[in-house]
Amino acid sequence: MTLIDRIKNGWTTLKFIRVGLGGLILYSSIDEGQVPGIFLGAFFLVFALLTDGVCCAGNACYTAPPATKTKSIENIEYEELGAE
Question: What sign has the CA pseudo-torsion 27, 28, 33, 36?
Answer without folding.
Answer: negative
